[in-house]
Amino acid sequence: VVGRYGGDEFVILLYGTREAGLVEQTLDNLRASISAPLTVFDAALQIDASMGVASYPQDGTDTETLLRNADTALYRAKSEGRNRVRRFEPALARASAERLSLAGRLRSALQRQEFELFYQPKVSVRANCVVGVEALLRWRDPCRGIVGPSEFVPHAEDSGLIVPIGEWVIDQACRQARQLFRGFPGLSVSVNVSPVQFARTDLPETIARAVRCSGLRPELLEIEITEGALMDPSTLPLLHALRKIGVCVAIDDFGVGYSSLAYIRSFMADTLKIDMSFVRGIGQSPRDEAIVKAILGLGHTLGMKVVAEGVETVMQRDFLMQHGCDEIQGYLYARPVSGTDICEVITSLNADMMSAHEVRG
Ligand code: C2E
Ligand code: MG
Ligand code: MG
Q: Domains of the chain (ranges plus CATH)?
């Protein structure tokens, strides 16, 4: 029995398949016929199918449980890269329950205003002072204290909650840029956005509104997009829309995301941020050093500013300065700090750099 369950989801009932390997065999045949190319108006199209399997009686003895468990297995098949078959196991159900509970907690975190932006300074090599900050999301979880984004952003992306959370981030960064950084004219604020945000919402509209409502000069806002996310062809119109608003665009974690040079040529970002993993290799791996120099050369030749993040040692900084890196961000100067502390951190960094400069001079 084959039935359409909703949208692009189908349910298949297979009877009498207790014999070992028969289910896999049947599903493989099915997947092969689904993915056979179709010709539509001279174009060859191919459809992939992901499948989740739950078996009676071991995975459930009623319809609801069997469907839920098959859906859990399907979710796993999709997250493992799609176009594959995954059988249900109890461990998947536990992971799914944890995901649901985290999604619930994130939703209430948004309502209870438990999110907060931390800021990390970026230092200009030429101007020898702080010229910008990157806004980094934190969750003040009442049970666990401050939680970093790598622990919850992937779940927020899965559940779609990254959309309202990301909107809050953009609004808050624009508002705080105007309120907190009044004493630092020209200081830019960078905000990270997730590819899910451009797929699901009108991101340019959200950004344009936040800029308008806050009164921030658009060129002082920089949107950071990871190199991996740029690969999707749908991002190109988005990038042009951002350009129209007048905000800057940075390609984050550059060097690890498989983007093509042709793509980089077709959209010129303002900034390239060298992935931290290469910065870490400075002084240790000649290959990493060669890659850092190559990224600096590529960025500068194409007229982009190049920023190094994750700079922790004087040796890394000196290497980067010597090879013409424009801006430096990392624990060497400052860790990300709360909105309450960031101005003091910037002021003291600027004073330190000024006096070091005078001593050298
Ligand atoms: P990212 O945008 O590449 O941010 C840099 C990360 O490196 C930050 O981690 C920062 O705290 C850390 N970092 C900075 N300097 C150093 C250093 O010298 N050494 C080391 N070891 N680490 C350093 P964080 O805050 O945990 O953020 C991790 C990632 O989460 C970010 O990587 C970004 O991709 C994502 N993220 C942060 N905030 C947001 C947000 O508001 N929205 C979205 N969608 N993603 C966010
Ligand atoms: Mg970033
Ligand atoms: Mg990065």
A: 2-88 (3.30.70.270), 103-360 (3.20.20.450)
